[in-house]
Specification:
Helices cover about 40% and strands about 15% of the residues. With about 270 residues, the chain is α+β, with helices and mostly antiparallel strands. The strands form 2 sheets. Strands 1, 4, 5, 6, 7 and 8 form a 6-stranded mixed sheet that branches. Strand 4 (about 140-145) and strand 5 form a beta hairpin. Helix 3 (about 35-50) packs across helix 4 (about 60-75).
C-alpha cells in the first residue's frame, strides 16, 4: 500500500492501472525517460527561477537537467524516448530540437508572465494531510490572487482537466484554510492560459474520498490496463503484456506464463 498519495498516482491509476502497478508496485528496472519529460522539468525550473527574479538562460537549465537525469536514472541520453517523429522531422524532438524550441517557449512565457499580476506562490510545496489518514505530497506551479495555474509543455491540454488543479486547491485549503476556486493551465506551446475551470467541489473531504477509492483498488489488486496510442510513449511498455512487452513474463501477472522461465534480462 502506498504510504502517501499524490495527484500523479491518482492520474496514473485512473488512466492505466497497469502502468501504475509496473512503476510503483513491481518497480520494474530500466524505466527510460523521454526528452519531453526532461525538457519539461528544465522549463519548470527555469521559469520558477525567472519569476523569483533570477538571471537565467534556457540552454544552461536544459543541459543541467540532462546531466541530472542521466545521473538519477542511470540512463544515457542516447537511449531516451523521442516524441514528435514525422515525415518533416524524422529524428523527432531530440536534443537539438528542444534546445531551439525551449528558447522559443521561454520567450513566449516571458511575454505572458509580464502581463500577469504578481504570483502569491511559485513552485510551492503543498504537501500535508487532507485528513488523518490521507497524506498528500505535491507542488503547485503558480498561484495568483484568484487563480491556480499549472504549467504544461506538452502539445495537448491535459486529459485530467480540472482534477490536477482541484487536488492542489484541496491541499491549499487543508493547509491554509483558503484557496482560489478557479484554475487554468498555462500551455507553453501557445503562450497563454486555457479556459478557467470551476474548482469549487474540490475540497479536502472530496479529494480524500477519491484517494480512498484508489487505495481500495490497490489493496484489492485491481490494476486494469488501458491500451491506446499512448502505449508507444509509456516508460514501462517493455514490461506490459497488453503492450506486447518483451519482458512482460517476468513482471506482469496478466502474462499467461507469469513467473515461468526468466526473461527479465535486457
Amino acid at each position: 500500500m502506498v504510504a502517501h498519495v499524490s495527484f500523479s498516482q491518482l492520474s496514473t491509476y485512473k488512466y492505466c492501472g497497469k502502468q501504475f502497478y509496473l512503476e510503483r508496485i513491481a518497480k520494474v528496472p530500466d524505466q527510460v525517460p523521454g526528452w519531453f519529460t526532461v525538457a519539461g522539468s528544465a522549463f519548470h525550473e527555469l521559469t520558477a527561477v525567472f519569476d523569483r527574479g533570477g538571471n537565467v538562460t534556457w540552454a544552461n537549465f536544459f543541459n543541467n537537467q540532462i546531466e541530472l537525469e542521466e545521473h538519477t536514472t542511470g540512463t544515457t541520453r542516447d537511449r531516451w524516448r523521442v516524441a514528435g517523429v514525422t515525415k518533416a522531422n524524422r529524428e523527432g524532438q531530440t536534443y537539438q530540437w528542444w534546445l531551439a524550441k525551449g528558447e522559443e517557449l521561454f520567450g513566449m512565457y516571458i511575454d505572458w508572465v509580464m502581463e500577469m499580476p504578481p504570483a502569491t506562490m511559485i513552485e510551492d510545496d503543498i504537501s500535508g494531510f487532507l485528513d488523518p489518514d490521507i497524506q498528500l505530497k505535491g507542488m503547485v506551479d503558480r498561484v495568483y490572487p484568484d487563480l491556480i495555474v499549472d504549467i504544461k509543455t506538452g502539445t495537448a491540454q491535459p486529459k485530467t482537466a480540472e482534477a490536477q488543479l482541484g487536488v492542489y486547491r484541496a491541499a491549499m485549503l487543508a493547509r491554509d484554510g483558503v484557496a482560489p476556486d478557479k484554475g487554468a493551465y498555462y500551455m507553453a506551446k501557445d503562450g497563454k492560459l486555457t479556459k478557467e475551470y470551476d474548482l469549487s467541489i474540490w475540497t479536502p473531504e472530496y479529494v480524500s474520498k477519491l484517494f480512498r477509492e484508489m487505495k481500495a483498488g490497490i489493496a484489492a489488486g485491481v490494476f486494469l490496463p488501458s491500451p491506446s496510442f499512448s502505449c508507444n510513449a509509456c516508460p514501462v511498455r517493455d514490461f506490459c503484456y497488453t503492450a506486447k512487452g518483451a519482458k512482460s513474463q517476468g513482471y506482469d501477472p496478466l502474462h499467461p506464463n507469469f513467473g515461468g522461465s526468466d526473461d527479465q534480462g535486457g
